[in-house]
Amino acid sequence: MYDTIARSGGDQVPPPSEEEIEEYITMDLTITPPTTTATTAINSAVTTSAAPVHDYEVTKPLPNTPMGALQREMSGNLLEKALQVNKAVHEVNDWARPSSDFFKFTTTPMVNLAIVGNPGVGKSSILNALGGNFDHGYSAVSGLTTSVSKQQVTFSHIQLQLYDIPGIDDCSPDGNDSIVKHLQMVQDSLNEGGPFIILFVLKPTNGRIKPSDYMVMKTVIDSLREGPQVGIILTHAIPRDIHHYRSQHYAKMMLDKLEKIIEPRCKRFVSRGPPLVLTDHDANGFSEEEKQMILNFILSFDPKRVESRNMVEQIVRSFFAMANSGFA
């Protein structure tokens, strides 16, 4: 019926009945959060170069009826709305990440959360967003965490033990000795037993991940004999870069580079899922929306017990391997 109206002139079509207008206006136009399959379909279907589906300025006008006016208004906004949906898909994914089956039971054991990275990337701030109370969550000076601190938080039936670990590549007066010391702290924490979730926190610079960040990830991942798949959080993103960091292209580029430098047997420890992207924050911490996104991201991983070998030895191996490959 509506196609016939759209193709005809206004004088040739009788006005629609009140029932027809009511049926059209009350159509359910709600957009539901997409599944992974739906997200892929939307990403492939919506592009910035898409042509308008219908251009009413060069075709026969719609009838001068309430329904025709509604159709014109909806079609005029179609491309703009489609592009907005395309950008919102990645944000929806951060909210709609499915929780691991591990957390779907009414009772779960204490889960340990180890966040690893270099100084000044926002590790303590992320832990504070989960309910931690680490004093060094924000400062203009990086590298304030100097020892491992632990705190327990509870979400419904889920208990998390948060590990606040110093940044690895610390340019402190201790020099290189601090790197060895901090790696030993990571290893000691992971060897305390119980199921772990391991996340790396990175701060891109002009869209690039620093070689020192790749070095930290390689060192920790190559030391694992058993453990969970690790995830990545990108912090301090400016608004114009968020969509880029959340794109499948950027995630693939970053993960392909990581898998290229780690030992082949350790690729099973790398999650191919997209990273969590967080904006820059101030002394007030993250917004309530971002706090929920952080929790959703963490609960999407399967916690597992960790078995690792000497990380100090591993960083020496990593250094020579990366030097020989010309990575740096």
Q: How would you explain this protein's 3D organization?
A:
This protein is of the alpha/beta class and 328 residues long. The chain folds into two domains: 2-95, no CATH class; 102-325, Rossmann fold. The protein has helices at residues 2-7, 18-25, 36-45, 66-76, 78-96, 123-129, 176-190, 211-222, 239-245, 248-261, 288-298, 311-325; strands at 111-117, 149-155, 158-164, 196-202, 224-226, 231-237, 276-279, 307-308. A six-stranded mixed sheet has the order 2-3-1-4-6-7, with helices on both faces. Helix 3 (36-45) runs antiparallel to helix 5 (78-96) and helix 8 (211-222) packs across helix 12 (311-325). The relative contact order is 0.13. The model is unreliable at 1-11, 28-60 and 137-142 (pLDDT under 50).
Question: Key features?
Answer:
41% helix; 12 helices; disordered N terminus; alpha/beta; 8 strands; elongated; 2 domains; Rossmann fold
Any chance you could write out the topology, listing elements then pairs?
Elements (H helix, E strand, L loop, with lengths): L1 H6 L10 H8 L10 H10 L20 H11 L1 H19 L14 E7 L5 H7 L19 E7 L2 E7 L11 H15 L5 E7 L8 H12 L1 E3 L4 E7 L1 H7 L2 H14 L14 E4 L8 H11 L8 E2 L2 H15 L3
Parallel strand pairs: 1-3, 1-4, 4-6, 6-7
Antiparallel strand pairs: 2-3, 5-8
Protein name: G domain-containing protein
GO molecular function: GTP binding
InterPro entries: GTP-bd, P-loop_NTPase
